[in-house]
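Readers of this paper often ask what the protein records in our data store actually look like. The remainder of this section carries one protein's record, kept here as part of the documentation.

:::
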Amino acid sequence: MYVLKRNWVDIPVIQSPKIQRIPDIVTTDEASQIFTSTRKLSYRVLFFTLYSMGLRLGEGLRLQVGDIDDIRQRVHIRDAKGNKDRFVPLPQNTLHILRTFWKVHKHPLFLFPNRKWGLKNAHLVDTHLEMSGAQVAMKAVVEELKFKKKITCHSLRHSYATHLLEAGVDMLELQKILGHVSLLTTSKYTHLTTHTTMRADKHINKIMDMFIISWGKIS
């Protein structure tokens, strides 16, 4: 290609940098509002499960009865992102809720069976809940609660990670729980927590106070 009387054989393509957005998260109080305001029991239990174990939506939907290890208090997450399995801690409250919910539908395989024949006949279906149905249910409850944030099912996973960091959970441990290949992926949650920001603010203000003291009064 000739431009300005010059043959440009190889024109380097400059790609625009990827835009990285900080996702919205919910507080523990807002998470509780989502659970209590979700009318359909299947989705209410699903949302609670996603949050309490930091699961991706697909991971939660695919949970099976045999994945629950109540002795070791953990859940086996199979075929996760990157075709990798992992174990995540199983809170006692989550175990209780899942057991109670299973007694309602008694499906021999799925913890969240499809609702196409109603919850009472859920034990007869051969598929789990659909992803689109869960997303629609989440959108409806967020709109009802009039949240100004952009909250999706995946926001519950972001919130779980952020709340654990704020509680002092080690980042390497959190990396294993979330199933991240790189620690850099996990470290992004430090941008979502006020815990490290508050510590930084404390030290910065202390340093600035030293400067003000050394200057004395400014006339």
